[in-house]
Amino acid sequence: MPRNVTPYKDSSQGKKEQVTTMFDTISGEYDGLNRVISFGIDVKWRKKVVGILKTKSPDKILDIATGTGDLAINLVETGASRIVGLDISKGMLEVGKSKVVRKKLEGKVEMIVGDSENLHFEDDSFDAVTVAFGVRNFENLEKGLAEIYRVLKPKGTLVILETSVPSKTPFKQGYKFYSKYVLPAIGKIFSKDRSAYQYLSDSASVFPHGREFNNILGKIGFIGMENKPQTFGVASIYIASK
Q: Would the CA dihedral through 154, 157, 163, 168 be positive or negative?
């Protein structure tokens, strides 16, 4: 299990409550800062997730930790009849809902408040489940993944986009410098929450990736795990099925 890094080290709240508070606080600035921090490459990564699911022709998709809804909205391109974007942060969802309305997608994309570790859906409800940069925020990783497994239909597809750590020189050293010094500095200068981007950096550095994460998926019961490193290994796309 990954070390449980939290946003606010002096807080008596659990990780789930701290993460909710953090994302509520930075919701208005999140999209803009995210584009700056990732140099806009995160947009390309999400398009790859959509491309993977297009080949599966899912009818109902659950996008967990949907945040401001970018991936949920992009998933309309798969042809799915229903896409549910779920997040624990009301602040992030409000930003996402405004995007859905602006793009006139209310009939296809629904944004709801929910806990990824306690999903209020029946077993075998969705043809596909996606998570973009969200699983490392789970308070209990295995519980959250087990809930995903439960609501996914047999032969359904799970696609996770998450940060990882490059293993090859010089990308490994460059990534460590950027994540340790540059990313937190940007957050401190431009963010309302000085701790938020330090947390995002710290949580990424300790989160299991590659084969280690695939082993956790296998422990939950997923099969056919694939790991597709992105951009020199700074992110990975994981694909698995039930």
A: positive
Burial track 157-168 (b if 16+ CB lie within 10 A, e otherwise): bbbbbbbbbbee
Three-state secondary structure string covering the chain: CCCCCCCCCCCCCCHHHHHHHHHHHHHHHHHHHHHHHCCCHHHHHHHHHHHHHHCCCCCEEEEECCCCCHHHHHHHHHCCCEEEEEECCHHHHHHHHHHHHHCCCCCCEEEEECECCECCCCCCCEEEEEEECCHHHCCCHHHHHHHHHHHEEEEEEEEEEEECCCCCCCHHHHHHHHHHHHHHHHHHHHCCCCCHHHHHHHHHHHCCCCHHHHHHHHHHCCEEEEEEEEHHHCEEEEEEEC
**Which amino acid would we find at residue 206?**
V
Cα–Cα separations (whole angstroms), residue 101 to 27, 83, 89, 90, 97: 17, 14, 19, 16, 6
The strand pairing partners of 236, in sequence order, are 162, 229
pTM above 0.90, yes or no: yes
Q: At 10, is the pLDDT very low, low, confident or very high (cuts 50, 70, 90)?
A: confident
Residue range 47-94, pLDDT digits in tens: 999 999 999 999 999 999 999 999 999 999 999 999 999 999 999 999
Q: Which two tokens stand for residue 133?
A: 């940069």
| pLDDT at 2 (0 to 100) | 54
Which residue in this structure is represented by tokens 């919701």?
27
Instruction: Write out pLDDT tens, residues 227-237.
Output: 999 999 999 99
pLDDT at residue 3, as a whole number: 62
CB 5 within 8 A of CB 206: yes
